[in-house]
Design a protein that fits this description.
single chain, about 140 residues, alpha+beta, four-stranded antiparallel beta sheet, two-stranded antiparallel sheet, 4 helices, about 35% helix, globular
């Protein structure tokens, strides 16, 4: 994987963050269809914020994102937008697995993991995300 530096009016940057979101109460509610739908929502939010969604995958509970983001962007604000938009969209679809296991209006736990990807090679993180035990 060749990673290109990105440019803005006043900066050249190459910033990556690995995000992990878990469901409320760590309930295992995601199916492949839900993850596919969620990817579209995350792609839309990222496009609006000048963020590149480098990788996305998940399991029945957590989801993992690898993002390339501009330095002007607050990671906390981006997380709020990603979780808010995906929660609203997925809840509107009224998936049975979610309705049965999550009764409140919350899809996500309020916590999250955000890790800088400077220490490990991005290919290792990409492979880790690709190898998630995706539900079928």
């Amino acid at each position: 994987m060749k990673t290109e530096h990105r440019r803005s009016a006043h900066s050249v940057f190459l910033l990556h963050v690995h995000l992990v979101f878990v469901t409320q109460y760590r309930r295992k509610v995601f199916t492949q269809a839900i993850l596919d739908e969620m990817r579209l929502v995350f792609e839309r939010v990222c496009l609006e914020q000048d963020v590149q969604l480098t990788e996305f995958d998940g399991e029945a509970d957590p989801v993992h994102l690898l993002l390339n983001y501009p330095p002007k962007l607050s990671i906390t604000l981006l997380i709020k937008q990603l979780k808010g938009a995906s929660s609203r969209h997925i809840r509107q679809q009224r998936y049975a697995s979610i309705r049965q296991k999550l009764w409140s209006n919350h899809l996500w736990s309020p916590s999250y993991f955000a890790g800088s990807c400077g220490g490990a090679p991005l290919e290792v993180i990409r492979q880790y995300i690709e190898q998630q035990d995706t539900p079928h």
